Amino acid sequence: ENARSDVASSRRSQVATARVVGVTIASASNASLEGQRFRIVVLDEASQMIEPQSMLPIVRFGAERVLAAGDPMQLPPILKVLPPASDHNGGLSRTLFSRLAKIGAVPTLLACTYRCHPALLRVPNVLFYGRRLRCGAAADDRSALIEGLEPSTFVDVPPSRPSGRQEQFNSSPAEADTAAFLLKRMVEAGLNPEQLGVICIFRAQVNLVRRALDALGGDVAGVDVSTVDAFQGQEREIILVSVGRSDGDLKFVEAPERLNVTITRARRHLIVLGRADKLRRSKLYREILESSEVISADDATAMFEHVSLTAAARESQQNDSEDEHEEVR
Q: Where is the DNA2/NAM7 helicase helicase domain (predicted)?
C-alpha cells in the first residue's frame, strides 16, 4: 500500500512540473491528475469521441480553450446501441466536433496529406473532400514495390462456387483464397508481412481470410487482417480490400465514412477484390473502378505467380535489414 502511495505521489509531482501532459480519455480521470488545471486541452481524433468523453478532460482540467482535431468524413464513434430514428440530433453518435461545427465554429481543413501515392489520393479527394486535398508526397516517394503493379488495382473476383462448407452470408471464399495467394507470393518475393494489410468490410470475411492465411502457414500468417473499424488510424505500404458479398443491398458496403477509411490506408498500392458487375451499381465504387486498373482474378493469379520486387523495394528491404542488424549489435 505504501509503494502504491509513493508511485501516485511521484506521478502527481511529475505532472505538476510538466508543461504538456498526454493522456487517453480513460486516463483523464486518473487520481494523479487530481487538482490539475490546463488552460488548453487538445482533443485528438475528436470525431471518434462521444460527447461525454470529450467533455471529461475539458471540465476536469478547467480548460479555457479547446483544440479539437478530427475528420468527420471518417468513422464516427462506435456505439453498441444506435440512437432511434426519431432522434434527429443523433444521440451519442453526434460528437462535440460536429456540434461545434454546426453552431458556427468553422473547421480548418489540413489540406495537405503525406501518406499515399498521388494516384491513390484522387478518389477520396473527389468523393469525400470536394477536391480540396493536396498530396504532399511525390510519386517517386511512393514508388511501386511490385513490378508491373499500378497504385490502384481492382481484381474482379467471380462469385464463389457452391461448396460443402456452411459459409456466412457476407463472406466470399473466392476473395479469401485470392487474397491469401497474392499475399503469399508477395511475402515469398521478399516483402515484410508488416508492410501488408487486409481490410474486410464484413467480420465474416475477416474470419475467412485469416483461415486461408493460417492454412498457408509461414510468415504470411502474420499479415494483419481486420475490419475497417480496427484499421482506422493505421497504414500499410500495400492494402488489400476484400469486399465480400456484394450481390444484395450495398448500403453498408458503400457507407461513405467506412469506404473513405478503407481506401485511404495504403501508401503505395491499393488492391480491391470484389465483383465489378455488382459494385458498378454504386456511384462510389464506380469511381474506384474507373480510377483503377481492372483485371480478372485469373490475370492477377498469373501476374503474381512470377511476382518480383522493384529495385526500389529491394533497396528498401536491404536498408531495413541493415538497420535491424545495427540494432542487434
A: 8-79
